[in-house]
Amino acid sequence: xxxxxxxxxxxxxxxxxxxxxxxxxxxxxxxxxxxxxxxxxxxxxxxxxxxxxxxxxxxxxxxxxxxxxxxxxxxxxxxxxxxxxxxxxxxxxxxxxxxxxxxxxxxxxxxxxxxxxxxxxxxxxxxxxxxxxxxxxxxxxxxxxxxxxxxxxxxxxxxxxxxxxxxxxxxxxxxxxxxxxxxxxxxxxxxxxxxxxxxxxxxxxxxxxxxxxxxxxxxxxxxxxxxxxxxxxxxxxxxxxxxxxxxxxxxxxxxxxxxxxxxxxxxxxxxxxxxxxxxxxxxxxxxxxxxxxxxxxxxxxxxxxxxxxxxxxxxxxxxxxxxxxxxxxxxxxxxxxxxxxxxxxxxxxxxxxxxxxxxxxxxxxxxxxxxxxxxxxxxxxxxxxxxxxxxxx
Length: 393
Prior knowledge:
Layout: E1 2-11, H1 15-24, E2 32-36, E3 49-51, H2 52-58, E4 67-71, E5 73-77, E6 84-88, E7 94-97, H3 99-112, E8 116-119, E9 123-128, E10 134-141, E11 144-155, H4 162-166, E12 175-184, E13 193-197, E14 207-212, E15 217-223, H5 229-239, H6 241-244, E16 248-258, E17 267-268, E18 271-273, H7 289-308, H8 314-343, H9 347-356, H10 359-367, H11 371-378, H12 382-392
Parallel strand pairs: 1-2, 1-11, 2-8, 5-13, 11-18
Antiparallel strand pairs: 3-7, 4-7, 5-6, 9-10, 10-11, 12-15, 12-16, 13-14, 14-15, 17-18
Helix pairs in contact: 1-3, 1-7, 2-7, 7-8, 8-12, 11-12
């Protein structure tokens, strides 16, 4: 059986894994291998909405190949379908990206930095030595089984992570099922505005989205709790036949998204856990491209530095957790707090809440930012002072 020795092994070719590979291979002094189990990038369905800051932080220009549509805001509809909160992003645009094109761009950058990239190459198993470090990972590459011997492993292999399940403890790890159609010839009022709908009859425990892509093409999907997401998408389209009756289905897919916040342990011996595998998703929105890629970027930098210092230890790799949690960890915690509070509200409560919150308030709640500011505002409203505000503070 062939062996491959590398300094850093990255498992997973999503936003977290590719960002990790780019950062770890910077300067060309550290050998990096990225393995992706899929036969092509971006196989998992995705709403593909990102902020301008996401591309900026990844060092990616919003080129026509990567950006499907420029977004100026969103309409968040209450359960009654009439009241809504309008969000305007102001000078900072958002984008609907072509996720596959974005990941291909990152993969090319990683290779040009010196990293090897193996697609269609799942990690099958791993071996732990007497000190508890992972010293072998078995990878299948086009019919050949290869033993990879890494110094550091960055596991970015999604909700079914081999290391997340078999090496770390992920107590309380929870996912929500999602599904999405991509339709041609759907009708939207404004092709540069996102549409989000909430309510127990629309998407219990989650939300339904209609995100315009290229002209006349939309992604319509939902994430729900306790029921198949597809049923609620189909129901919404039947109730809005004038918008969706003569559409053509271009794609359909389903997946799951973690909504329980970060797992407690993200570094163990010489392994770092990143992205969906570590629960690094903003719980209230289910958005993970930005938060996951920044985790990978930090983990890649820490891995490179640890190898160059010849100090590959659990203590040294904990720098990844410390740096990430200074900003993103708090956002995820605050968004999770907001999600747990809002889940307890009735549709009638949500209808009233739509009349109280501003677009800025919704952004803050969704993204885990300035939660105390929103709570202070809600304290002035008798209905929400007890139900929401105190729990958010």
